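User: Teach me something about this protein's shape.
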Amino acid sequence: MTTELSEPSFMKSRRGLKAAGLASLIAGLGLGLLTLASAAGIWLGLWDFRRGFSLLGAANQYGQWVAWACTALAIATVLSGQLFSIKNAGKFIGFAAIGALLAWVAYLIPESFRPGEGVNYPPIHDISTNRVNPPEFVAVVPLRADAPNTLVYGGSNNMTPKRLIELTDKAFPDLVTQRYSESEDAIFTKAVDAVSELGWELVAADASAGRIEATDTTFWFRFKDDIVIKITRQGPDTVVDARSVSRVGTGDVGANAIRLRKLFALLED
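Assistant: First, the predicted structure itself:
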């Protein structure tokens, strides 16, 4: 059912529809730009991750309200366009819909960084399968000269090796030394291939020492985390230990553990 409007009423309704559509588009676009700026500033070297976190936090804090407001405006434009048979209503409805879509995407991007419901990661950023004798970095060391986080296992602020072992054992009991029946050379080759497949930057691959070092750069905030893989022979088994350490941040929200799980999944193939 549609309603015919007098010319003044028609123009008033059309202006209202246009305002609603543009308001939704501007609000959604603004929220989207705020979310994008949190990362773009880091990519362009305009600010560090702390400012990026601040901007993303602001987008997340108000994002849901903006998204719902844009959705309400989009619904209102659809109903008004249908009810009053407003000419060119589709254009304004499109503006409102695009604004709502942008707002929800901008809100859900920071939400995607949150752990799943019931998942609590410990405030650690150094994960090693061998907690007693963690694999040591060599080639990566000079690359971390300005990194706030140390490569000393358990050497970060408010942390000790014993405490780090306890937290890792509790949170990631599956991440332990891995054993394979294949030769050292075969596993070394698979590990180098895995580094490439996972998109890590290969820093060093020393077959004689059985050591591979790499760096993984996260997409959004361009965090650099370093990985070392140590391959040795023990009796009939090829033994693999791996360690992943963030350069910045107290906690990694499980990123280093997830990274090692992906590595071992490829070595199992």
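Now, about its shape. Helices lie at 7-43, 49-84, 89-111, 161-171, 184-197, 255-268. The two ends are 62 Å apart (CA to CA). If you'd like, I can walk through any region in more detail.
User: That's plenty for now, thanks!
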